[in-house]
Amino acid sequence: MKTVEECAKLLGEAIANDEAVKAYNGAKAAFEADAALQEAIREYNVQRMLLGQEFTKGVDTQDAELIARLQARIDELYKTVTEADAYILYNQAQEGVNALMQKVNSDINFYAFGERPCTHDCSSCSADCASKKS
Q1: Sign of the dihedral defined by the CA atoms of residues 102, 107, 112, 113, in that order
Q2: Share of the chain above pLDDT 90, in %
């Protein structure tokens, strides 16, 4: 019989070889290699920091025009970042990995404790949980 550590190693290796993880690694590499996108993200973060600094000033010393310019630039950068193909593919790949890990964790919980986490879709289980009573 294998130890928990040995099984964890095998599980980790299997996860690393899963198509969802491979897609994530490729999307992450493309996301990080997109220089224009990374620059837009850096600028977005700086602009948000500057806006935050302006908001921490007293109301009577805040520069409304500066706030408006910063917010407009932040909105523009947000759109640029979130509409970039590399960003979209990276987020989709992350969702795929999250789904895989949720499934793996659910399976581990089931095999270890005989229970699956509540999905709030009562057709998937026979538990008498609160979501059935609503």
Answers
A1: positive
A2: 80
Q: What is the mean pLDDT of residues 51-63?
A: 93
Q: How far is CA 48 from CA 31, 53, 100, in A?
A: 21, 9, 33
pTM of the model as a whole: 0.78
- Please provide the CATH number assigned to the domain covering 4-133: 1.20.1500.10
Expressed in angstroms, the distance from the first to the final Cα of the chain is: 44
Cβ(34)–Cβ(86) under 8 Å? Answer: yes
Could you identify the residue written with the tokens 């659910």?
Answer: 106
**Which single residue is written with the structure tokens 């950068």?**
77
- Locate the domains of the chain by residue range: 4-133
Phi, psi for 63 (deg, rounded to 5): -100, 100
- Average pLDDT taken over every residue of the chain: 91
